[in-house]
Specification:
Elements: E1 5-6, E2 21-23, E3 35-41, E4 49-51, E5 57-59, E6 65-70, E7 72-74, E8 79-82, E9 91-96, E10 100-107, E11 116-124, E12 147-152, H1 159-172, E13 177-183, H2 188-196, E14 201-204, H3 217-232, E15 238-243, H4 253-259, E16 264-270, H5 274-284, E17 290-292, H6 299-309, H7 322-332
Parallel strand pairs: 1-6, 6-10, 12-15, 12-16, 13-14, 13-15, 16-17
Antiparallel strand pairs: 2-11, 3-6, 3-11, 4-5, 7-8, 8-10, 9-10, 9-11
Length: 346
């Protein structure tokens, strides 16, 4: 018997600990969030990797089997895909290494070939096994935590890296910090890295049964309310939240911003270049409190952001920027006054 690899989208489930059957189901019974078993096909390449439930990466080869979940991806810089585009031959792709499965519809020519898969069947007990079955419903209450929200002009714009620095600096103040990735496509290592930076609790949309947040806005609102209820239960002082990709992309980032608008005490925009900062400012009519990422890589870039947009920009990878970051945190987050003084970053 072949023992499959369990991808990180299965981390909320009991599939590794309880038996299930692999059974082919008709296409009209398929849905987003279904757990499915697939066989790896084709010549292995750089993307023939599986992110395991603990976040570790594992190489796979032709003939190996993987448990993942049907979903959709709409990445601007890498690729897009949709489980609903899977044909009768059952051929599909790993849209992310975390086990987001669907048929690739558009892939960047700069990206190595995606992992090719063949549908073997659904994980079935009495009925098909889905992500939502492992998500208990919590009573939602008014969410009142202050939020540092990181948004981007695209994927790979520096949001997670900036978030790690901010989490670290807040922990230096003795704050209890929860960190979350609110939108995006399945990938556990991003949110794990926020935990490595010191966050007391970490969450993402997987925890509420979404393999990605490319879904109907109403479905996302329900899921985000559940996620915020879980975050509120942690007793944190503050939430550092990342909206994956860009709020303008179909990941419901704009919905997340709208739902949190009364809680956002500090808005951080991670941008690919200074001109992209202008685009996001124009689209949302809100000036960010700080610009980070490649748009702040050099002094020239920082000066151009200030000239074009009138916004402070910092390269948070430089230790010399930490004092200015902490000053900004003090200005925006009144709760810092109740905690220990800033540690010296000089």
């Amino acid at each position: 018997m072949t023992h499959p690899f369990f991808s990180s989208v299965t981390r909320i489930s009991d599939l590794e600990s309880r038996p299930f059957e692999c059974r082919k189901l008709p296409h009209n019974d398929w849905a987003t969030g279904d757990y499915v078993q697939c066989e790896v096909v084709g010549k292995p390449g750089p993307l023939y990797l599986v992110e395991l439930p603990a976040g570790r990466m594992c190489q796979v080869f032709d003939g190996d089997q993987i448990i993942g979940a049907f979903g959709k991806r709409a990445a601007t810089l890498e690729g897009a895909g949709d489980w609903e585009r899977i044909g009768r031959d059952g051929s599909l792709h790993a849209l992310t290494s975390a086990g987001l499965f669907g048929k690739a519809t558009s892939v960047s020519p700069l990206l190595p070939p995606l992992m090719k898969l063949k549908y073997l069947g659904h994980a079935v007990r009495q009925d098909k096994v889905t992500m939502s079955q492992f998500c208990s419903t919590k009573e939602t209450t008014q969410f009142d935590l202050p939020v540092v929200l990181l948004i981007g002009t695209s994927m790979s714009s520096g949001k997670t890296t900036s978030g790690r620095v901010i989490v670290h600096e807040l922990k230096q103040r003795g704050l209890k910090v929860t960190a979350a990735k609110l939108t995006g496509a399945a990938r556990y290592r991003d949110v794990l890295s926020l935990g490595d930076a010191g966050a007391d609790h970490i969450f993402d949309f997987i925890d509420v049964g979404l393999p990605s947040t490319v879904c109907e806005p109403d479905e996302f609102r329900v899921a985000l309310n559940q996620l915020l209820a879980r975050i509120a239960d942690t007793g944190a002082d503050i939430l550092v939240a990342e909206a994956g990709a860009s709020p303008l992309e179909p990941y419901n980032g704009s919905v997340a911003m709208e739902m949190l608008k009364n809680n956002i005490e500090m808005l951080v925009l991670c941008a690919s270049d200074p001109y992209a900062v202008m685009g996001v400012q124009h689209a949302f009519g809100r000036e960010p409190d700080l610009v980070c990422g490649p748009a702040a890589n050099t002094e020239s870039a920082v000066d151009l952001v200030q000239k074009l947009c009138g916004v402070r920009a910092l390269n948070l990878l430089r230790r010399s920027a930490r004092a200015e970051l902490n000053q900004l945190l003090e200005e925006r987050l009144e709760l810092l006054d109740r905690h220990m003084p800033l540690a010296s970053s000089s």
